[in-house]
Amino acid sequence: MAFRPPGQRPALQRSSHSEVIAVFAAMQSEVSVCLQWAKEVRSSEVDGLRLSETDGMVVCQTGIGPRSRDAAESVVSRISPGVVLSIGVAGGLSPKHAVGDVILCERIDHESHRGGEREDSVFSDPRLVEAALAAGKGLKLPIAKGSSLTVDEAAWGPAEKAEHHSWRAHDLVDMESYWIGEVAARHNLPFLAIRSISDHAGDELIKTGAVGLDGNFHGDRLIAYVREHPDQATAIAAQGEAARSAFNNLAILCAALLPPLVQHFAG
């Protein structure tokens, strides 16, 4: 499948009829970040997928990893949105980025294409990138353009991250944005991937098992892990604090960017 480079994306234009924007997030915590600005949120379901709706916007919790492709295809096919966004936290690959930095992913690759003869990158719409960049800079957020690598298995430590970074010097690693961008490209929809860095390239993450593949947080699992590994409690707390920093900056950007984007397409 061939994907258009950024310069060939269609320009954003208000359509003659009202459209919604479709936002995809892997975890419930990311869904909440996307909706913090909304006054009223309704719950619904499509093909077994949990949807949260507010006027002009639908947020889908996809779960973690490649399942996000099927989730995005189901929702996009059903609601025919005007724009598609992938929003969430991610691991840092480039040492130059700090925890809490927000990266607007202009190009997204998948690890399976490494060493292939054909480039199968997906791209964010340049106008959406510029709009998000302006919003973030206006709020004094640590925000930049960059690139992301989507993987099917989480990168837990510095060695794995360094190996990923050695391919095309991606800024961060996630598990969903490529799949969602692929669906947007197939439907010829403008797309934007936004990621906030929750762990530095040099950080070693602890596998507590607190977040399931469905994207839901299980506090009982975290408590059980800490009880079994009390020596890691301090590191786990630090890991949680870093994640909070990433979620906080992501929430600030979403509150500034999503309402005018909704107005553009649904107003």
Concise summary:
The chain is an alpha/beta fold and 267 residues long. 37% of the residues lie in helices and 23% in strands.
Beta-strand fraction estimate = 15-25%
Provide the residue-averaged pLDDT. Answer: 90
CATH superfamily: Nucleoside phosphorylase domain
Question: How many distinct helices?
Answer: 7
Record field, number of beta strands = 10
Rg estimate, integer Å: 18 Å
Task: Describe the model.
The protein has 267 residues and is of the alpha/beta class. It has one domain (20-266): Rossmann fold. The chain is 37% helix and 23% strand. Strands 5-9-8-6-10 form a 5-stranded mixed beta barrel, surrounded by 5 helices. Helix 4 (158-168) links the parallel strand 8 (143-150) and strand 9 (172-174). Helix 3 (126-138) packs across helix 7. It is globular and about 55 Å long. 42% of the residues are buried. The model is unreliable at 1-17 (pLDDT under 50).
Question: Keywords, please?
Answer:
alpha/beta, Rossmann fold, 5-stranded mixed β-barrel, 7 helices, 267 residues, disordered N terminus
Please write out the topology.
Blueprint: E1 21-25, H1 28-35, E2 42-46, E3 49-54, E4 57-61, H2 67-79, E5 83-92, E6 102-110, E7 122-123, H3 126-138, E8 143-150, H4 158-168, E9 172-174, H5 177-186, E10 191-199, H6 219-228, H7 233-266
Parallel strand pairs: 1-4, 1-5, 5-10, 6-8, 8-9
Antiparallel strand pairs: 2-3, 3-4, 5-9, 6-7, 6-10
Helix pairs in contact: 1-7, 2-5, 3-7
